[in-house]
Write a structure and sequence with these properties.
This protein is an alpha/beta fold. The protein contains nine helices and nine strands. The mean pLDDT is 96.
């Protein structure tokens, strides 16, 4: 029996805690939290959403979009993230992205039990857009493919943005450092421009919890970035996620320490050219669509690019269902 309790997002949402046992990185007991939206009576599909770094699920507009198209919607707050972070745990810290396989496996098994025979689409954003393909590829390689029919990636993090020094010498320096000082915080420029562009306290329209998603993000640690860079190398060698994949990203990047209107019309976090370069390495059935004027989270873009992103997903999933 799965126990659901009310969620902070309101009457249409419930949450279930997934107990994972001892944290492999030694930070107590690990848990993940699965959130669900009240589903249509006979859903035609199921969606499982996976967030990115310094993020958690709050995008009720995304859930409403899928529910309006007959889907049962679920979202997973990964271990040490959002609702799932426990006292004393380092926000979003894992030393190996494969640790997330446990909660992803448990989540798809749960939604498959609640909606037997209904096709599952995984939707993942940013770092989640790296975690989900690696998980699907591992399951396929292990001869136990996940019960997933499609994958939608929203600005997936497929390479380290910035200079070649960051992608080369600094990346390799992380390997020995991660063994001895995994929780050492890496120096980073003061952020907050992207977060401010989203939140109602700044120039945005979303009232998310700034404790769970700080406007300036969370500190980046040596061990976590080393885990991410290992994931990047696997993508660059080539994955096969085993399902049709749609990759959405903006038409431009804009990195700045101060706000301007350009922040609202570009990816202020990742290099979109890198996304375009590496997306074909995810599998043989990958479709890449550029959304002009989109933000890093294309579903939190301004009205016109947001509508374009939703229309693209609707059309793409519709074509898959027609050909099934």
């Amino acid at each position: 029996m799965t126990t659901w309790k009310p969620d902070q997002l309101g009457d249409d949402y419930q949450q279930h805690t997934i107990v994972l046992g001892a944290d492999p990185d030694g930070e107590g007991e690990a848990e993940a939290v699965l959130v669900r939206r009240t589903a249509p009576a006979e859903p035609r599909s199921v969606v499982l959403y996976v967030h990115g770094f310094a993020d958690y699920f709050f995008q009720t507009g995304l859930a409403d979009f899928f529910a309006g198209r007959g889907a049962a919607f679920y979202a997973l707050d990964l271990r040490k993230c959002g609702r799932a972070r426990r006292p004393g745990q380092t926000a979003h810290y894992v030393s190996d992205l494969a640790w997330y396989d446990a909660e992803l496996d448990r989540s798809v098994d749960l939604v498959a039990r609640e909606h037997p025979g209904v096709p599952i689409t995984v939707v993942a954003h940013s770092t989640g857009g790296l975690i989900a393909p690696l998980w699907l590829d591992r399951r396929r390689r292990n001869g136990n493919p996940a019960p997933v029919a499609a994958l939608v990636l929203n600005s997936p993090w497929l390479d380290q943005q910035g200079s070649s020094t960051l992608r080369g010498p600094i990346t390799w320096a992380l390997v020995p450092l991660a063994r001895v000082i995994p929780l050492r915080v890496l120096p980073a420029p003061v952020g907050g421009v992207y977060g401010t562009s989203l939140h109602v306290s700044g120039t945005g329209e979303w009232d998310f919890d700034t404790v769970l998603k700080p406007l300036v993000g969370f500190p980046v640690t040596v061990g976590w970035l080393n885990a991410v860079r290992r994931g990047h190398r696997k993508v660059h060698k080539g994955l096969e996620v085993g399902v049709p994949t749609l990759v959405l990203h903006s038409d431009r990047s804009h990195f700045s320490s101060s706000y301007s209107d350009a922040v609202d019309r570009a990816d202020a976090v990742l290099d979109v050219q890198q996304i375009a370069r590496w997306a074909p390495h995810l599998g043989d059935r990958t479709t890449v669509v550029v959304v002009p004027g989109a933000r890093h989270d294309v579903f939190l873009s301004q009205v016109e690019p947001r509508a374009t992103a939703y229309d693209t997903v609707d059309s793409w999933l519709g074509s898959l269902h027609r050909s099934a």
